[in-house]
Every structure is written in structure tokens, then in C-alpha cells.
Design a protein that fits this description.
single chain, alpha+beta, FAD/NAD(P)-binding domain, 2 domains, five-stranded parallel β-sheet, about 25% strand, binds flavin-adenine dinucleotide
């Protein structure tokens, strides 16, 4: 059966819903349908942010905001001038979803429930007359003169004037081949935001301990990341590690997740400053045992572990600390090196990087530069943010722009 749905959005996630709603609100007479492979729509919104949905971030400067995206910062910077977190918050608040900001800048619905966001999106879509076709997986998309022919898993075909692909991870969409045939370049999918498994985990018995201000640097070629680190049963996690995994995602995939990571447990402290501090301890607290942790920012068990790893007896006083032990302390506190052997995907927030090459998409319209009438939004593009609500913001922004241009670039149409 052939169906003449004129504006199709493929994917019932955050980006797909935002695209469809925007298009429908601008062009109320348009026939807009969302085609979703699964039984459930907005599945990731539901589980996001531990069920609370960290829907955006309290950062309202497009330039500053764009720096939180390891892939796509340049393209998103322009797009954020068009639709940014302030717009997102206003949009949701106008539709009854009040938001709140946590100390670290993450923004959630005041209800603390992702269902509030889902209810808002589905109710707004219903009011706008958007139809959702669930359990309809798109298998193939091809050009048919100036239209699009879409083949669904059940064999049904849909004909559309314009299509927005909001597929989430391209790899799981099954459409990589179809898109390559259309001439679109695809960056290979790979995970971003993961924890590091440590080989012969030297800190395993400290699992559960976190250090609030530490720095992670992956070798070779990593980008330094500062923030909390959590020691887990498998290795290292926490915001600084997840951020480092996102920034270095492509490089770490090439290394098959076997690399060396270096931790500064004292944040940004420099060796010279620490050497001076150890000398001060010698002078000011000569009879105090080194086992008494002198660094309030460092958990005591981690301090004792570091003394143990470099064989400093617990009864050693600061006056008796040898030069070699001092050097080892500086090395292990500021450049603790560990071999990473594999990764663990973070359950709370997981994104893939890779996807449609950004050069082939006009970020003013989200339209393909190769094929007019084909639009993209959300995670299927080769862009991704660090944790903190940035990935949903990218979905809202790209969805908003795609929806607007889909609605505006064609004459008002009727669904008959
Ligand atoms: C556990 C978890 C927690 C997260 N928490 C947060 C958070 O708190 N804050 C944040 O900013 N980000 C979070 N993220 C990331 C965020 O969920 C994604 O960045 C966001 O969902 C991307 O939206 P999207 O619409 O592009 O893709 P998706 O939400 O993945 O939606 C894509 C949709 O397309 C459908 N689809 C795919 N292929 C086809 C096909 N061939 N035919 C038809 N339909 C298809 C899929 O079934 C899916 O419903 C989290 C991710 C996970 C996994």
C-alpha cells in the first residue's frame, strides 16, 4: 500500500518530537507523521537522568555552551543563536513543565520525573494533530523524482515531500547503507561517555570513594579534564572520567580502549607547589606521622593507599621522609598512572558519537546539502555533548531548526 504522508519525521525520540511539533505549530494544516520503530515513543527521555530527565543545562551563552560538545561545537554554536537552553526552558514552561537548576548547572523538571516531559511532548503533539505510527521500522529511503519513497519493515511504502531523519544512533537504525547510497558520508559510530576498566586494578579496595577535584589525562593525545572522579569496582568513573572519554572517544576507540591514564588527585596542583608543601610539612609538623592525611581534599583511605603503593611505612614522620619517598609521593599524587583495559558503559547517560557528516548538512535549516527535502536532527548527526543535559539540548535545537525549515520551505498544504 502506498501512503502519501507529506511530511514525515522518522524517529519518535526527543529530536523527532521537537521537529514534528515545531513544524505542526508553524504550519497547522500540514500533514505531519512520526514513524517510530519501537512500541514505545520517547524511550530515552523516560530513562534519562536516572528517570528525572536532565533536559538542558543552565548555560545561556551560545559560545560557552558550544564548548561542551566534543563533536559539532562549531556548527552548534551558530544553531544555539537560534535556539538555546533559555528557549527550551521557556518552551516547556509555557506548556506547563516548570524547571529547576541544580548546583552543577543541570536542569530538570521540578516534578523530578521524566514522565512530565513525555506528557508535555505527547500532549502538544496530539493537540497539533501529529499522527504517530509505532512499530514501523524504516528499512530504506530512496529518492523518487522530487519526492521520497520510504519502505517500512512490513513492506508498506510511504511517499513524502520532505523527510526528517531523527533516528538516534545511526548504527542501530539500520539505515547506514541506505544513507550511504544517497551519497551521505557517515562517521563510524562509537561510544562516548564511558568509565575506564583498570588492568590489575590497584585501587579496587577503595571502590565507592570519590575525589571531588581531580584531573584526568589520557595518553597519548588526550585532553585534560578536571572534576570529580569516582573509584569503582572495575576502575575509574565520575564526571571527569566521562568527560575525558567523550573528548577522546575517537582516539580511545582506535586504541581499542587499551591506554594509559594519568590522574592528578590534587586537581591542578603543580609539582613545584607540592614539593614546597612537603618541605613545609617537614618544617612545621616534623614529628607528625605521614599516616595522618595532611590533604583535607583527599579521602584518608586513598592517602593511605598511595603511601602503601610506594612503600612508605605508616609510622614514618615528616622529618624522616626520604628524598626518594618525597619524589614518589609527588609522582603518585600528581601523575598517578594506570593502565586502562576496556570500558564500561555508563548506565545513567550513554551516547554514541559518529553519524551523518556535519559538513553535508546546512545548520541554518538542518537540510541535507546533497538532497533538498531531506533533513536531520538529533543524535544521528556526528555531534555529541558531555554529560549535563547537553545532548538533549542538541536534540531540541536541531529539531527546532529542522521543524521550522520543513514548515517554512514549502507552501501551506492540507492533509487531504
Ligand atoms: C540511559 C540514558 C540516559 C540519558 N540521560 C540523558 C540526560 O539526562 N540528559 C541528556 O541531555 N542526555 C541524556 N542521554 C542522551 C539522550 O538520551 C540522547 O542524546 C537523546 O535521546 C537523543 O535524542 P534523539 O531523538 O536524537 O534519539 P533517540 O532518543 O535515540 O530517538 C531515536 C528514535 O528513533 C527510532 N528509530 C531508530 N531507527 C529507526 C528506524 N529505522 N525506523 C523508525 N524509527 C527508528 C528509535 O527507536 C528511537 O525511538 C541519555 C541517554 C541514555 C541512553
Amino acid at each position: 500500500m502506498e501512503d502519501e504522508g507529506k511530511t514525515l519525521v522518522i524517529g519518535g525520540g526527543a529530536a523527532g518530537y521537537f521537529t514534528a511539533i515545531t513544524a505542526a505549530e508553524i504550519n497547522p494544516s500540514a500533514d505531519i507523521r512520526i514513524v517510530e520503530a519501537g512500541k514505545k515513543i520517547l524511550r530515552k527521555v523516560k530513562i534519562s537522568g536516572g528517570g528525572r530527565c536532565n533536559l538542558t543545562h543552565h548555560c545561556f551563552d551560545p559560545k560557552e555552551l558550544s564548548l561542551r560538545y566534543p563533536r559539532g561545537p562549531r556548527e552548534l554554536r551558530g544553531a544555539f543563536h537560534h535556539w538555546q537552553p533559555l528557549d527550551t526552558i521557556k518552551w516547556f514552561e509555557q506548556r506547563g513543565v516548570e524547571t529547576k537548576t541544580e548546583d552543577d548547572g543541570r536542569m530538570f523538571p521540578k516534578s523530578n520525573s521524566s514522565q512530565t516531559v513525555i506528557d508535555c511532548l505527547t500532549e502538544t503533539a496530539r493537540k497539533a494533530g501529529i499522527k504517530t505510527l509505532r512499530e514501523n521500522r524504516l528499512l530504506n529511503i530512496e529518492k523518487l523524482h522530487d519526492k521520497w519513497k520510504l519502505t517500512l519493515a512490513g513492506g508498506e511504502t510511504l511517499i513524502a515531500n520532505r523527510v526528517c531523519l531523527a533516528l538516534g544512533s545511526l548504527k542501530s537504525s539500520g539505515l547506514e547503507e541506505s544513507l550511504s547510497k544517497l551519497g551521505h558520508k557517515i562517521h563510524p559510530s562509537m561510544p562516548s561517555l564511558f568509565s575506564f576498566n583498570l588492568k590489575a586494578h590497584p585501587l579496587r579496595d577503595l571502590a565507592g570513594i570519590s575525589v571531588q577535584n581531580a584531573t584526568v589525562l589520557n595518553h597519548p593525545l588526550g585532553k585534560k579534564q578536571n572534576g570529580p572522579i569516582l573509584i569503582t569496582h572495575r576502575g575509574l568513573s565520575g564526571p571527569a572520567v566521562l568527560r575525558a572519554s567523550a573528548w577522546d572517544a575517537e582516539n580511545l576507540a582506535k586504541l581499542n580502549y587499551r591506554f594509559e591514564t594519568e590522574i592528578n588527585w590534587l586537581g591542578q596542583m603543580k609539582p613545584e607547589d607540592l614539593k614546597n608543601q612537603l618541605n613545609d610539612f617537614r618544617k612545621k609538623i616534623p614529628t607528625q606521622r605521614t599516616s595522618q592525611n595532611p590533604f583535607p581534599e583527599l579521602p584518608k583511605r586513598l592517602w593511605i593507599k598511595i603511601l602503601d603503593l610506594i612503600s612508605i611505612p605508616l609510622e614514618t614522620t615528616w622529618a624522616h621522609l626520604s628524598k626518594q619517598h618525597s619524589r614518589n609521593l609527588v609522582g603518585n599524587l600528581l601523575s598517578f598512572r594506570a593502565q586502562v583495559d576496556g570500558k564500561t558503559t555508563n548506565k545513567d547517560e550513554f551516547v554514541t558519537c559518529g553519524g551523518i557528516c556535519l559538513k553535508e548538512v546546512d545548520f541554518k535549516t538542518m537540510e541535507s546539502k546533497i538532497h533538498p527535502g531531506l533533513f536531520f536532527a538529533g543524535e544521528c548527526l556526528n555531534l555529541d555533548g558531555i554529560t549535563g543535559g547537553f545532548n538533549f539540548q542538541a536534540a531540541w535545537t536541531t529539531g527546532r531548526i529542522a521543524g521550522q525549515s520543513m514548515a517554512k520551505s514549502y507552501p501551506i498544504e492540507t492533509s487531504s
